[in-house]
Amino acid sequence: MQVRHILQGKGREVVAIASNATICDAAKMLTEKRIGALVVQDSNGTLTGIISERDIVRAVAEGGAPAFGEQVGAHMTPKPETCTEADTVESLMEVMTRGRFRHIPVLDEQLRLCGMISKSRSCGARHLGSATRSAWTRITSARCGMRMAIRRCFMPIT
Known about the structure:
By secondary structure, this protein is α/β, with parallel strands linked by helices. The protein is built from six helices and seven strands.
């Protein structure tokens, strides 16, 4: 199975943030979009880094509440590993495990950003053959819906 098959199921939307945005802005965006990492781009749209929930937690643990006002560029992972749509899920899992990261930007044939893959999505997909690919998409969609319902149960009432 190739990365392009995962993108066909999950979509190609890439949520990006500027390196001069604040950690607070990044945390809000992650929460609103219900995702675990953001691509960091410069003013030309070039990939300059990636910032994850873990990076934000580390920034706050090291700097306290004032870290929320610091720039994303100071806490992002610069020049992140990337993969292409043609890469296999097996090779992607190996790279992610070796590098100890959970999100990886995907580049198309022209080396333009075209998606983002998480380890949880690729891990589940790598065990599936082409006959069960659409079933995997339905299962992960249902799982995401269940997660959102659980979050709503624990959200404070305003």
